[in-house]
Amino acid sequence: MKTKLSVVLLVVVLLVWTPACKQTEQKTAKAIPPASVSVYKTFTEDVPIYHTFVGQIYGAKDIAIRARVEGFLKGVHFKEGAPVKAGELLYTIESQPFEAQVASMDGLLAEARTKLVKAKRDLDRYRPLAKMNAVSQSDLDGAVAAYDAAKAGVTAAQANVRAAQIQMGYTKVYSPINGIIGKTKAKVGDFVGRDPNPVILNTVSNTNSVLAEFFLTESQYLGTARQIEAARQEGMDREKNFDADIQLILADGSVYPHKGTPNFLDRQIDPTTGAILVQVSFPNPNGLLRPGQFGKIKAMIDSVKGGVLVPQRCITDLQGLKKVFMVGEDGTIKEQDVTLGPEVDNFVLITKGLSGGESIVYEGLQKVADGTKVTAKAVKVERIAQEES
Asked: Which H helix or E strand runs over 123?
């Protein structure tokens, strides 16, 4: 009897306790508010696409100053690192051996001229005698041949004198252009003009404008060339856009104030590196740029019309799939697959998945999942240029 009474009491307790638990759970669920997240509202805009390349700077003209004859360096007539003018004397090499050579050639020329005078007199004497048959025709022919040979000897001797004078002229080295001269590679007293001694004595650079050289990979070259060709077929001039926005970023991170102009594309892709050389010209009115500097060339290679940019931190990666979380008008989260394009500062271009006007989760990604409810607060995100390696 007691057992039956205990069972009845247990059933009554369970019936009373179970609804009470359910009510407690419902009250607890209603007490938890939706998660609060920050959202970024997307919009469409024309997005310029830049690529950055590491390049090196050269002078518009970098002329090597060479010792064209051998000898001991006698004089250095410039200040290292200073501007020089075209035709300004830079170096002198001892000239005595070359002066002796010129004197020797002058002597041979005088001898040749003496022979020519004698041959001319002999010919003048033989011609009237030949008319009177006082000398044979063969004697006259011999006189004519001797005269022609003497004339040729004078011409050859004159050429030798000119060659010796040219060699002696090389003992004075002049600047071929206006520019800045570097540090001399030979001092007074050094023997120059023969390896391993200095042959290149110095370099003069014209830096009124400079050339920045960098390399495009084969795939970058193909992509850029196809974009330009597509723009031409559409009646657009993409090359003008490319020309108009080429920047030089210096080693300290500053942007050079003058824009560059492309002026050279190599004829071939180097088969050893798979890259093609590109050369861009920058004006250098203040002389800030010097040959040998390194910098980054930032060039606009394309412009996407109606593109959608989103902050990089809005993107989640799940096993290689890129996703964003969109917030509907009722606060419901929807997971959206996206395809990424190039990065633009701290943003990334979305090529597929968004069309502009969507609100996507910016902060609080760890709180959301597909189908959950949130309260959203819009934020503005400034575009910040990223330091490129």
From this structure: helix 96-131
List the structure tokens of 8.
Answer: 């009845």
| CB-CB contact of 173 with 67 (8 Å) | yes
3-state secondary structure of 342: strand
Distances (CA, A) of 330 to 304, 334, 335, 344, 363: 32, 11, 15, 31, 18
A 10 A CB-CB count for 347 gives 20
Distance of CA 374 to the CA centre of its chain: 50
Q: Which tokens go with 76?
A: 């250095």
State the amino acid at position 167 in one-letter form. Q
Angle at 197 between CA 193 and CA 202, to 5 degrees: 70
Collapsed DSSP state (helix, strand, coil) of residue 242? helix
Distance CA(259)–CA(248), nearest Å, equals 7
Can you tell me the distance from the alpha carbon of 211 to that of 61, in angstroms, rounded to the nearest whole number?
A: 9
Q: Residue 371 to residues 10, 306, 364: CA-CA distances in angstroms?
A: 41, 29, 15
Among 259, 254, 218, CA closest to 242: 259
Buried b / exposed e along 216-253 (16+ C-beta atoms within 10 A): beeebbeebeebbeebeeeeeebeebbbebbbbbeeee
Along the 389 residues of the chain, how does pLDDT read in single tens digits? 445 545 545 544 455 455 555 555 555 445 567 889 999 999 999 888 888 899 999 999 999 999 999 999 999 999 999 999 999 999 999 999 999 999 999 999 999 999 999 999 988 888 888 888 888 888 888 889 999 999 999 999 999 999 999 999 999 999 999 999 999 999 999 999 998 889 999 999 999 999 999 999 998 888 878 877 776 676 555 555 555 579 999 999 999 999 999 888 999 999 999 999 999 999 999 999 999 999 999 988 777 889 999 999 999 998 889 999 999 989 999 999 999 988 888 999 999 999 999 999 999 888 889 899 999 999 999 888 765 54
Cα distances (angstroms) measured from residue 192 to each of 95, 97, 171, 218, 233: 13, 14, 11, 43, 59
- And the tokens for 152? 């040729």
Separation of alpha carbons 128 and 353, rounded Å = 110
Task: Give the whole-angstrom CA distance, residue 229 versus residue 217.
Answer: 18
